[in-house]
Amino acid sequence: MVLAMHMSDGLVNAPTSLAFGAVAVIGLAIAVTRARADLDDRSAPMAGLVTAFVFAVQMINFPILPGASGHLLGGALVAILVGPWVGMISIAIVLAVQALWFADGGLTALGTNIVNMAIIGVWTGYAVAVLLRRFARRSRPGLLTTAFIAALVNTVVASLGFVLQYAIGGAGGASLTTVFALMVGLHALIGIGEGIITAATVGAVAAVRPDLVHLLAGSPAKLELRRAGPHPEPSGSPDSTDSTDSTDSTDSTEATTRGSAS
Amino acid sequence: MGAGHAHPLYLPGTSAAHRLPAEVKIVAAFLGVLCVVATPREAFPVFGGYLLLLAAVWWVARIPPGWIARRSLIEAPFVVLAVLLPFTGPDPRIEWLGLSLSEAGLLGAWNILIKGTLGVLTSLTLAATTPLRDVLLGLQRLHTPPMVTTIATLMLRYADVIAAEARRMRLARIARGHDPRFLWQVGATARGVGSLFVRTYERGERVHLAMLSRGWAGEMPQLTDTRTTRRDWARGLAPVGVALVLAVTGWVMT
C-alpha cells in the first residue's frame, strides 16, 4: 500500500478551496519574482531540471513498515539544495502536473495542496535549516542532522496544514481530534523516512559538489589539500574529460532532438 | 527521446473534445469540479446527474468507460480514509448489520467518496483528451508567468529522462541484492537519490549550455498562432452550464 499524500476533491468545502487557492496564487507570484535572484544567469533550465528531479524522486517509494511505503515530498530537500523560492515553484509545478495529467490530487484541492506542501512545507523546512545553519556549516554530522530535522518537521507541519484546512472547512464527519491524531501519527512515520532520505541526499551532494547546496552558500571554503609534486599533466585537459564524455554525447543528441521537435 | 510527448493517461483521438483548445478544457474542468464540490452532500440524485454528464462527455470524446474506470483506481487510498469515517464519527449512531455506524460519519464518507471520484473522473477526462504540449500552451494563454511555463516545459521534457535514470539505478541496486524492507535499510536508496541530484544538476548545466548555443533568449517561443474563438469557449463551457444547473438544483432541493 502506498500512502497518497495529495488531497482529493471534496475533502474541504468550496469556499475553503477557493480561499486557499488564492493564498497559493499570491504565494507563487511572490516566489516567481524572488526566484529570479536565486537563479541568476542559469535561469529557467536549471529550475526545470530540479523540478524534473523532484518529480522523479516522488516516484521512489521507501519502506515505512512491512507492507506500507511512502514517497518523498522533497520540500525540505529542495529548500536546502536550491533555496526556498525556487523550491516553492518546483514543488508547486510538480503538484500541478500531477493534478492535471495524472489525476493525483483534486483540481479544486490544488490550492490547498500547494499551500500545504509548497508553501508551508518548503518554508518550514527552510526555517528549521536556517535556524540550525551554524551546526550545518561546522561539520558533516551537523549538516546531516540539520537536513533530517528539517525534513521531519516539514512533513509533520505540512500535515498540520491539512488539519487546519479541515478545521476551517472540513467536509467529512470525523472529529478534529481523530483527524489530528491520524495525520500527525502517519506523518511522523513518513517524516522519519523523509528525514533519512533527505539527510543522505544532502550528504551525498555536499560530498561531491558542496557549491550546489544552497544552505551552505557563503560559508568559507575549506582548506584544500594539494600535492606538492609536479603536475601529472599540462593544463588544458582537466580530469573531467573521461568522466563526462559518455554522458555529454547523449545530452547533445537530446538537445538536438529537442531542437528539431519543437 | 521520443518519450515525453505522450503520457500514460492520454488517449489519442480526433474527437470534438480532443480538438478544443486546451485552455478551454482546463477552465471547464476546474469550474465543473467546483460545481461538484459546492453541491450539498444530501442531494443524492444530483451526483447521478454529474455522472451522466461526464458519460456524455466521454461519448463525445470516444473514451471507453472501462478505460477511465481502470485508471480511476488512483484514488483508492482516499477510499480507505473514507471507510474509517463511519466508525470514528460522532453520535447519533445507527445500527446496520450489527455494526454501530455514525450517521454524520456515513454522510462524510459519502461526501468524500463521491466528490473525490467525480473529481478524479474529470481530471482523467482532461488528461485523456489533451496532450502535454497543448496543456502547456493552454497555461501560457491563461497568462501563467512565462518563467513558470518554461520550467514546466523543461520539467516535462526531462522528467522521463530522469525517471528512467532513477529506474536504472534502482535496477542496478536490485541486481546487487538490494531488498529493503525496513526504514533503517533506506541508506542505499538515499545515497542513490543524492547522486541522482548531482547528475540531474550537471545535466541541467549541460542542457543550459546547449540551449544557449542554439539561441535561447530566456523564453520558449510561441510555435502556433491558432486563436481561440468564442465558439470554442461556448462549446467547451456548455457542460459547465449543465453542471451549474445541477448544482443549483442541489441547493434548491435541500
Protein topology:
The complex is a heterodimer of chains A (262) and B (254).
Chain A: H1 14-39, H2 43-57, E1 61-65, E2 68-71, H3 75-82, H4 84-101, H5 110-131, H6 133-138, H7 140-169, H8 176-208, H9 241-261
Antiparallel strand pairs in A: 1-2
Helix pairs in contact in A: 1-4, 1-5, 2-4, 3-4, 3-5, 3-7, 3-8, 4-5, 5-7, 7-8
Chain B: H1 16-19, H2 22-38, H3 44-61, H4 65-71, H5 76-88, E1 93-96, E2 99-102, H6 103-129, H7 132-141, H8 146-175, H9 187-213, H10 230-253
Antiparallel strand pairs in B: 1-2
Helix pairs in contact in B: 2-6, 2-7, 2-10, 3-6, 3-10, 5-6, 7-8, 8-9
Please give a structural write-up.
The complex is a heterodimer of chains A (262) and B (254). Chain A is globular, with a radius of gyration of 21 Å. Residues 235-262 of chain A have low confidence and may be disordered. In chain A, helix 3 (75-82) crosses helix 4 (84-101) and helix 5 runs antiparallel to helix 7. Chain A is mainly alpha-helical and 262 residues long. In chain A, 68% of the residues lie in helices and 3% in strands. Chain A has a two-stranded antiparallel sheet. Chain A has a single domain (14-216), classed as Orthogonal Bundle (Arp2/3 complex 21 kDa subunit ARPC3). Chain A has helices at 14-39, 43-57, 75-82, 84-101, 110-131, 133-138, 140-169, 176-208, 241-261, and strands spanning 61-65, 68-71. Chain B has 254 residues and is mainly alpha-helical. Chain B folds into 2 domains: 16-138 and 227-253, no CATH class; 146-213, no CATH class. Chain B has helices at residues 16-19, 22-38, 44-61, 65-71, 76-88, 103-129, 132-141, 146-175, 187-213, 230-253; strands spanning 93-96, 99-102. Chain B has a two-stranded antiparallel ribbon. In chain B, helix 7 (132-141) runs antiparallel to helix 8. At the A-B interface, helix 1, helix 2, strand 1, helix 4 and helix 8 of A face helix 2, helix 5, helix 6, helix 8 and helix 9 of B. Chain B: InterPro entries: ABC/ECF_trnsptr_transmembrane, ECF_CbiQ, ECF_transporter_component. Chain B: It is a multi-pass membrane protein. Chain B: It holds the Pfam family CbiQ.
